Amino acid sequence: MPTFEDVEIIKEANIYFDGKVTSRVINFNDGTTKTLGIMMPGSFEFSTEKHELMEIMAGELNVLLPGNNAWQTIKSGESFEVPSQSVFKLEVKTVVDYCCSYS
């Protein structure tokens, strides 16, 4: 979906890795949450409490998901999922615009 309606947006940004990764929280009326953000090129490790669906709107990155030994390349228009209570690694190749959904 290209737009969101009837949402609450938290104005304050989440800023990680010295500003190389930023996001804004969007809360929906049904209780779900998403973040919209930008990642600059670099290597990052994230941990998550909830299941994540990461949609890549623009850019390219490699992801190493839990339990995998091989990196996957993800490009604009593609997505990947991260299980809850896990750690994953990213190698961001170009500036990445993303939308992350939590469940």
Query: Strand portion, in percent?
Result: over 45%
Mean pLDDT rating? 94
Q: Do you know the CATH topology?
A: Jelly Rolls
Task: Output the number of helix runs.
Answer: 0
Strand elements, count: 11
Structural class: mainly beta
**Span between N and C termini?**
17 Å
Radius of gyration: 13 Å
CATH superfamily: Jelly Rolls
What CATH architecture do you see?
Answer: Sandwich
Largest sheet features: 7 strands, antiparallel
H/E element string? EEEEEEEEEEE
What's the level 1 CATH class?
Mainly Beta
The helical percent reads: under 10%
Shape: globular
Low-pLDDT runs of 5+ residues are none
- Our count of domains comes out at 1
Report on this model:
The chain is mainly β and 103 residues long. It has a single domain (7-102), classed as Jelly Rolls. Helix content is 0%, strand content 60%. It contains no helices and 11 strands. One of its GO terms (cellular component) is cytosol.
